[in-house]
Write a structure and sequence with these properties.
Blueprint lengths: L2 H7 L4 E3 H6 L6 H10 L2 E5 L2 E4 L8 H8 L7 H7 L6
Antiparallel strand pairs: 1-3, 2-3
Length: 87
């Protein structure tokens, strides 16, 4: 499979190996390593990747939820993030 085909099939900026299996895509580990070396994708964790050209669309909160589940955003962080309380 080519990288351009992968972008067309996966429509989220973060994907996992399970997502590839659900879409019935055949991607070999060496392809993921090559794309990572070339800078096309970013390896976040074993089996979890992000498209580097869509990195501006990815929120840090979304990455933290993907990497560590169950996770949550604290009330204090949310209020400070939206400027409702000073830090």
């Amino acid at each position: 499979m080519k990288y351009t085909e992968l972008i067309k099939k996966i429509n989220t900026p973060i994907f996992s190996l399970n997502d590839l299996q659900l879409e019935k895509l055949t991607i070999f580990p060496y392809q993921l390593r090559e794309w990572s070396k070339k800078g096309y994708i970013i390896k976040l964790k074993n089996g979890i990747y992000a498209f580097s050209n869509q990195s501006s669309e990815i929120l840090i909160e979304h990455i933290s939820f993907i990497l560590y589940q169950p996770s949550y955003i604290s009330l204090e962080w949310a209020l400070a993030n939206y400027g409702l309380i000073p830090e």
